[in-house]
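User: Can you help me understand a structure? I only have the sequence.
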Amino acid sequence: MLDAHAHVSFKKFNRDRTQVLERCRLAGVGVVDCAVTLSTLERSLELSSSYEFVYSSAGVHPYKVGRLSGLQLQELLRSIEESVEQLVAIGEAGLDYYLDAGSAELQREVFKRVATLAKEYALPLVVHARGAEEEALHLLLELEVERALFHCYGGDRSTALKILESGYSISLATNLCFSEHHAKLARELPVEKILLETDSPYLSPFRGRRNEPVFVLEAVRKLAGIKGVSERKIAEAVERNARRFYGI
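Assistant: Let's start by predicting it. Here is the structure, written out as tokens:
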């Protein structure tokens, strides 16, 4: 099984990162770790070089857009480019109008820069779009981005279908385990188009607990119940989808 999007490089795992990854190893769960700062990029690359089941992506989260100076942004983008051969994807990057994340115009500008980087290096793009799914889709089509994953998708069904019809992918997170909206999406989307992720340390399926990549198995269990098929079939299908998307 592959957790299609997590943040094991974040400081919330500093205390017990080794144990978290050992639990992944024992459960047979691989991890695509997403870095969004210089420090998490450095840590993520260390992890992906040390663990054969950890893969790195790197981008500029919209939350960071309004908090980075022009020089800091340039340095982060330069570091991503310098590390591109060690990455399986560019991102996450995108639009989020629920966050205090800088102006919409600035978010769009940075999103375009990161998307162009993914296109230039022929890597898939991981998209963060909350409250702006349609706009993000239009920007991707305008830029002619070939491969994109709308991670932690929470938009409506009609936009989801437009995303899939455009040749892009959708990932559902572990909030599937407690969100009726996400369960409804899972019922209506074909398994062959779905990826699963934890977005850990966020969106834990267990109240009061930090999320971690091995909990992606809870999303597998939930999706299997929704679709009325075995957990094994779901795990095999969504892992195949994730590995195809990332080319791993």
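Now, to help you interpret it: The two ends are 13 Å apart (CA to CA). The domain at 2-246 is CATH 3.20.20.140 (TIM Barrel). Let me know which part you'd like to focus on.
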